[in-house]
Amino acid sequence: MAAPGLLFDEHVNVTACRQLQAEGADVVHALEVGLGSTPDPDILRWAIEHDRIVVTRNYQDFAPLVQSLAGRGMPFPGALFLSTSIRQNDVGAHVRAVRGWIEAYSAGDRSVTGSFAWLF
Q: What's this model's pTM, rounded to 2 decimal places?
């Protein structure tokens, strides 16, 4: 099962995004698609319109948005929150966390449709 597309929020490491792209992952960065400095609700709206799961370090702002959508029964691809234990500049940790989720998803273990999950 192929993993769905991902959208890295602008606060997620760009180099990690590029490395995952080089490995064949279907991931785009907010800065690559013209979403730099875009408000979080608009980031999530773009992700929904393009059927992409948001990958973010910003639990504080995105969690209420995700909970609101889920509470209203609105379908959305989901969100993946990078743990604060992963430093912003640790490209390898970003790549391992996302790659691990993609592998688990492909094995049928990690759907986040209409919800969220943590990446460690």
A: 0.95
pLDDT tens figures, 91-115: 999 999 999 999 999 998 878 999 9
On the question of pLDDT at 2 being above 90, the answer is no
20-26: which pairs have CB atoms within 8 A and are 24 or more residues apart?
A: 20/95, 20/98, 20/99, 23/99, 25/98, 25/99, 25/102, 26/2
Query: Contact 32/19 with Cβ under 8 angstroms?
Result: no
Helix (H) or strand (E) holding 6: strand 5-8
Residue 66 structure tokens: 């995700």
Q: How many residues does the chain have?
A: 120
